[in-house]
Write a structure and sequence with these properties.
single chain, 198 residues, mainly alpha, Tetracycline Repressor, domain 2, 9 helices, 0% strand, DNA-binding transcription factor activity, TetR family transcriptional regulator
Length: 198
């Protein structure tokens, strides 16, 4: 039996804590999730949690980072499967809004995350999202699909802000499915305003 290296042991400890915390946050919510319960479930001590994450808030950040990476991968696949670059942009952003219907995303990313970590526009993943959308807008402008007089950075920030606000509205509403049904056509119409010709 080979002995694990220190980096492997650290990665395993972090992965265990993130997995049990993610389950606890999704099931009970951030405020009700007990650090003692999920460290015990992971077979670790509270000291391990503090050592690796600085506390419960740091662990929430790590869980959100993991979920965000998974969502980005799923949405990239949606965009890649679209028949055109424009349709890829539209479907990827509508897909993000629709993720607000998933219970784990609702609770962890769109309810507890903003309450604990502040405005999602300031989260690290938001800047990466803006950069990706800006790149897509620039390519669509080069293709003549999106109006050349639109600033790509401004468009990317407006799209990100609109989709994030829509997702927050859905997740925090009494009837998420109904709000989603209302949001999608309006969001699509807003995006179509970027087109060079309809």
């Amino acid at each position: 039996m080979s002995r694990r290296s220190r980096p492997e042991m650290i990665a395993e400890t972090r992965a265990k804590l993130i997995a049990v915390a993610r389950k606890a946050f999704a099931t009970h919510g951030y405020a009700e999730a007990s650090m003692d319960d999920f460290t015990a479930e992971a077979g670790l001590t509270r000291g391990a949690l503090y050592h690796h994450f600085g506390g419960k808030r740091g662990l929430l950040e790590a869980v959100i980072e993991q979920i965000d990476a998974e969502l980005a991968e799923r949405l990239a696949a949606v965009a890649a499967a679209a028949p055109t670059r424009w349709e890829g942009l539209v479907q990827e952003n509508i897909g993000y809004i629709q993720l607000a219907l998933e219970p784990d995303v609702q609770r962890i990313m769109l309810r507890d995350g903003p309450a604990v970590l502040g405005d999602p526009a300031n989260w690290p993943g938001a800047l990466a999202c803006i950069a990706s959308i800006r790149g897509n807008i620039e390519r669509l402008q080069a293709d003549g699909v999106v109006r050349a007089d639109i600033d790509p950075e401004a468009a990317a920030r407006m799209i990100t802000g609109s989709s994030t606000d829509a997702a927050l509205w859905i997740a925090n509403s009494a009837d998420p499915a109904e709000i989603s049904r209302r949001v999608i056509p309006a969001f699509k119409a807003m995006l179509e305003g970027l087109l060079a010709s309809l």
